[in-house]
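In the design runs reported in the main text, the only information available to the sequence generator was the tokenized backbone. The following block is the verbatim input for one such run; it is reproduced so that readers can re-run the procedure and compare outputs position by position.
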């Protein structure tokens, strides 16, 4: 199966996207099709042996829309393409807005004198003599027609798209606008002939009657107000992509290439893997790579959200688009183009923003039949009022109002605009949702399974306690650092770091010997020293019923209760001290867990540690349940057990051994500093390696879903209330009727309201930060 993305043009409402989706899904060989109205694109999975991309493009064009493959062939062959898909979309959007602006101002210029002519008599406005009075009715009517005609021609796209949709049995919002305004326009032309005939035959009363029911201004106002609404909607929709554009703008346009020691500024597209680049203070790192020489502090906040700059030295990896805050360094490029971290983040956010959430399914189903139903209601309204004894003019205006007030746009935009803004806000906070389904599902979870090491804790041990028995702590650390100097074990590195932080110079150790499963021994200044576990002390005959050994047992017990690992240090005479190390919880872990619990989520910690250490960590961070002594390969089955109770379960982890569990869970969340395998298996990525971001991700998910529900409620409520009122159901009760002009204004407002409401998500605030 092949997966491709197509750009679709000409869609104006959810009925359009539903028609495109429906027609493509019917094609043999297509297994999946999803059309996004907001992004104007279509994702398709299909069998190339059965159907081609060209056939799908032809099918879309046949039903009245434009289509093209999103990825040009040059890009597929690896050639450089200057513009990204998002930039191309923006160019299209700018061109559309320019064209819409021309239509809008042209319509408004003609609309002003037209409204003066049609409505001036209501406020006793002076009228030119050749247009005043019933005897000049023909000139009066023809003048209105001439002012209406430019508005119709300027907005011909509604008629072309609308009638093409009707012909292809795929009616859309343009069809409703075209039918409503055409009905008003045709009736106006009919009235013009009736007035001319009546005046010519001296039937001034008949002429007077039709002069009050021309409806040219209704046809013109419908088109003008719809264009106003579409213009506002387009501007608002453009703002939903602000986060994406901000990410795109992070990447510099040029890079400084080093050739034989000389600097040369070149375009970013010209940089190749293996090139050596210079990065100056205050500039952004051009692409992903490795530092060759120099050092600096790099601000990675734009990508990870972490505000503290990270020090970079020779051999350290640097990421494109991060900011070099201080020193000068050179780097070798390891990734370019779509392989860079920034490009992958942009692709991830774009894909998530254009995917569909499960909650959108109902709106999509309704959108598919919405326009035909509205057309049916309009026809029933027309016939019903005629049967009730009303005039044809009254019945026609009610039918036109039904066509114009109904708004399939609001239904189609309710979900995608909120998803687009929500994923963009997430990216701004260092949270990447891979698809809309993950964004929606996260706020439904009931159990959060969290890996301990590297997720709740820092992922590396640190020295927490130093207890010397027959020397001071400084000497003990010096001996310990010397013994551990040749070891790569994380505990050894923790002791060496502690000695360095304390300003202690390590002594020189000789005859280093590793004692498997026990510890190490070495000679320092001719004296033999041992470092290791309690068993090593016993086997070397260094344990005894003396006061030091009894004290050490008590210390060891207290350390274990606190989740710390004790190391014993001894010389040939006996115990000289103990050092305790622990993988401490991150500062943000406890408030993150408390936040999740406040939302009613049960937090379960998975760890391979023994029960005592696990219990100590539980007491420190306050998780609800601990599953200890879990082997790496058993994490998947533990998540499966949690899900067996029917509860929606999320899993947070960072290691390779977490990948199966991340894939198994209803929602998999990867800590960003983890492995690529874990990131691939997850639905959500926390770029900052901060557990608090899991809580933020949950809150953003809930806020987005609330916004979607508000939008859907408004879209349904508006149509359910607006259509009956437009049909005149309140007329027998209180005489209330809606003119087509009010219907057009209400319809335009409905779409703008939905988009503007979604933009409120940009004001999302992180609790507790």
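Verbatim output:
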């Amino acid at each position: 199966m092949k997966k491709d993305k197509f750009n679709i043009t000409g869609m104006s409402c959810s009925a359009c996207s539903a028609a495109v989706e429906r027609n493509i899904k019917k094609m043999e060989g297509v297994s999946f099709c999803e059309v996004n109205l907001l992004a104007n694109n279509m994702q398709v999975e299909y069998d190339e042996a059965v159907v081609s991309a060209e056939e799908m493009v032809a099918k879309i064009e046949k039903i009245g829309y434009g289509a093209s493959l999103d990825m040009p062939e040059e890009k597929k062959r690896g050639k450089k393409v200057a513009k990204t898909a998002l930039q191309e979309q923006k160019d299209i959007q700018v061109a559309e807005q320019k064209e819409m602006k021309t239509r809008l101002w042209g319509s408004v210029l003609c609309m002003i004198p037209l409204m003066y002519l049609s409505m001036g008599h209501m406020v006793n406005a002076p009228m030119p003599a050749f247009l005043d009075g019933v005897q000049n009715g023909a000139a009066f009517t023809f003048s209105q027609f001439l002012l209406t005609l430019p508005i119709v021609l300027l907005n011909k796209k509604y008629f072309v798209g609308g009638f093409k949709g009707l012909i292809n049995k795929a009616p859309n919002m343009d069809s409703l606008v075209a039918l409503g305004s055409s009905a008003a326009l045709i009736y106006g032309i009919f009235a013009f002939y009736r007035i001319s005939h009546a005046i010519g035959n001296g039937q001034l009363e008949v002429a007077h009657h039709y002069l009050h029911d021309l409806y040219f201004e209704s046809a013109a106002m419908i088109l003008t107000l719809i264009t106003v609404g579409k213009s506002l909607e387009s501007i608002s929709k453009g703002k939903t992509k602000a986060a994406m554009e901000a990410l795109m703008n992070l990447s510099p346009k040029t890079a400084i290439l080093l050739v034989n020691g000389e600097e040369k500024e070149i375009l970013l597209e010209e940089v190749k893997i293996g090139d050596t680049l210079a990065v100056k203070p205050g500039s952004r790192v051009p692409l992903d790579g490795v530092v060759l020489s120099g050092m600096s502090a790099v601000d990675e906040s734009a990508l990870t959200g972490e505000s503290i700059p990270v020090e970079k030295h020779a051999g350290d990896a640097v990421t494109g688009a991060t900011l070099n805050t201080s020193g000068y360094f050179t780097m070798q490029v390891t990734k370019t183009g779509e392989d860079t971290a920034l490009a992958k983040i942009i692709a991830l956010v774009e894909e998530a923003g254009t995917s569909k959430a499960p909650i959108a399914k109902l709106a999509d189903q309704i959108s598919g039949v919405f326009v035909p139903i509205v057309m049916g209601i309009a026809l029933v309204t027309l016939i019903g009022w005629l049967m009730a004894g009303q005039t044809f003019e009254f019945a026609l205006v009610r039918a036109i109002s039904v066509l114009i007030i109904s708004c399939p746009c609001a239904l189609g935009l309710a979900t995608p605009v909120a998803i687009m803004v929500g994923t963009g806000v997430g990216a701004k906070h260092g949270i990447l949702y891979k698809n809309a389904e993950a964004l929606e599902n996260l706020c439904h979870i009931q159990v959060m399974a969290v890996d301990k090491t590297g997720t709740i804790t820092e992922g590396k041990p640190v020295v927490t306690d130093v207890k010397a028995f027959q020397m001071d702590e400084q000497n003990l650390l010096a001996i310990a650092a010397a013994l551990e100097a040749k070891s790569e074990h994380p505990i050894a590195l923790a002791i060496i770091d502690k000695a360095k932080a304390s300003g202690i110079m390590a002594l020189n150790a000789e005859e280093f010997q590793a004692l498997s499963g026990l510890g190490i021994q070495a000679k320092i200044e001719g004296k033999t020293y041992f470092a290791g576990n309690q068993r090593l002390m016993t086997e070397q005959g260094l344990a005894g019923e003396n006061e030091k050994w009894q004290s050490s047992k008590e210390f060891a017990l207290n350390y274990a209760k606190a989740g710390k690992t004790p190391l014993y240090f001894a010389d040939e005479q006996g115990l000289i001290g103990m050092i305790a190390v622990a993988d401490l919880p991150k500062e943000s872990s406890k408030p993150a867990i408390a936040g999740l619990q406040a939302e009613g989520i049960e937090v379960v910690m998975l760890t391979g540690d023994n029960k005592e250490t696990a219990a100590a960590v539980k007491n420190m961070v306050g998780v609800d349940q601990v599953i200890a002594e879990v082997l790496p390969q058993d994490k998947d089955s533990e998540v499966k057990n949690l899900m067996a109770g029917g509860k929606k379960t999320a899993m947070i982890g960072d290691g390779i051994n977490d990948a199966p569990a991340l894939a198994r869970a209803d929602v998999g969340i990867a800590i960003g500093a983890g492995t690529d395998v874990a990131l691939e298996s997850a639905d959500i990525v926390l770029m900052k390696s901060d557990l608090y971001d899991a809580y933020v991700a949950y809150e953003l998910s809930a806020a987005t879903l609330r916004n979607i529900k508000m939008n859907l409620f408004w879209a349904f409520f508006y149509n359910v209330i607006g259509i009956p009122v437009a049909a005149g159901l309140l007329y027998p009760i209180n005489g209330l009727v809606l003119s087509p002009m009010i219907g057009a204004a209400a319809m335009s407002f409905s779409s703008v309201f939905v988009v503007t409401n979604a933009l409120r998500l940009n004001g999302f605030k992180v609790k507790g930060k």
